[in-house]
Design goal:
alpha/beta; two-stranded antiparallel sheet
Length: about 350
């Protein structure tokens, strides 16, 4: 071993504390997490995503607290067609502590460059009415969007994305990167069009989602016959089997070509992952993505004009190992990071 190198390392690190780092980006993590040599306990205090400050009164402030990014819980699962339980998803995801804040691929501590907070959950007037709950979501996100805040949300079933899109896509239709086992473009059933199987048909018909700038990745299962709207409207579908053939790089190339410079929403349904990685969901489908593949897809959205995103369909009562919540929290962090990068880029 090089003795001079060893001597330098001993001099530099021999008496250093765990909180002593020199890289300026690493230093930002230490400044966020440490108080002197003490690090905040991951099992103590109120759980917020990324240990962000809790700003539960943000919606009551005229400017939504001056936030750049708000993490929002949407604990509503009245739109499910199979197993219920994703109303408990936001709580399960927030309880995962081993996430961020440093992103080793993008080499950034996104939360150090934007003003972000966990603003708690959307307040619902009724736990029984799906239509009323959708109205509450749209009103909440409408106020958030009016204040210029980028929402990063955790559900809840996938029907929550429709009222969110109505709020943030009202002036300009959105593009979308949609990672899911299901295309979610089916029609009304049993008296309602607001279920989790059809939010993106309704978003297109409402004029808030541009179908020709939509790419749906990981699609599979026995409900293909319900999704002809995706094809007829001009959405791009990459089935799970095609994804395995063309790979991550080609899929990312298609994502970037399709959404272009348009304001883009990322919607991630945890059932896009194979049940081996995410059993805790309402409509599991065998043959899905691996967690690392899904992470790479969202990382490939860096530099796009991301204006919001969500992670949905985490149902923790079917999640005996907590793997699903862990994967969902990581995906929420990936979306948070690319949304923050877009926010920084827009600021100039």
């Amino acid at each position: 071993m090089d003795k001079k190198k060893l001597e330098r390392l001993r001099k530099t690190y021999g008496g250093a504390s765990g909180a002593e780092v020199r890289d300026p980006e690493f230093r930002k993590v230490v400044d966020l997490l440490f108080n002197g040599e003490r690090r905040s306990k991951p099992y103590a205090d109120v759980s917020t995503f990324l240990d962000l400050p809790l700003m539960a009164d943000a919606a009551e402030r005229e400017d939504f607290g001056g936030l750049d990014i708000a993490v929002v819980g949407v604990p509503m699962d009245l739109g499910v067609t199979n197993r219920a339980g994703s109303r408990l998803g936001p709580r399960a995801v927030r309880a995962v502590e081993r996430i961020g804040p440093y992103h080793h691929v993008h080499k950034t501590v996104a939360m150090a460059h934007v003003k972000a907070a966990d603003v708690g959950d959307v307040p619902f007037r009724s736990r029984y009415s799906l239509e009323q709950s959708h109205a509450d979501i749209e009103a909440y996100f409408g106020k958030l969007h009016k204040a210029g805040v980028t929402p990063v949300s955790v559900g809840g079933d996938h029907s929550i994305t429709l009222p969110i899109m109505k709020a943030i896509g009202a002036k300009e239709p959105l593009a979308m990167v949609h990672i899911d086992a299901h295309a979610d473009t089916s029609g009304p059933y049993e008296g309602t069009k607001f279920h989790h199987g059809g939010p993106f048909r309704e978003a297109v018909l409402a004029g808030v989602l541009d179908p020709e700038r939509v790419i749906q990745i990981g699609i599979r299962g026995n409900a293909e016959y319900l999704w002809e709207f995706s094809y007829d409207s001009g959405m791009t579908i990459i089935h799970a089997e095609e994804f395995m053939r063309i790979g991550i790089d080609e899929t990312i190339r298609r994502i970037r070509k399709i959404v272009g410079k348009a304001p883009t929403y990322i919607s991630f349904d945890v059932d896009s992952l194979d049940p081996a990685f995410a059993p805790g969901t309402g409509t599991p489908e065998a043959g899905g993505l691996q967690t690392r593949e899904a992470m790479e897809l969202v990382r490939g959205c860096a530099g796009l004009n991301i204006v919001g995103g969500d992670v949905v369909e985490v149902a923790p009562m079917y999640d005996a190992t907590s793997n699903t919540a862990q994967a969902a929290a990581q995906m929420l962090f990936e979306i948070f990071t690319v949304a923050a990068m877009a926010r920084i880029k827009r600021k100039g």
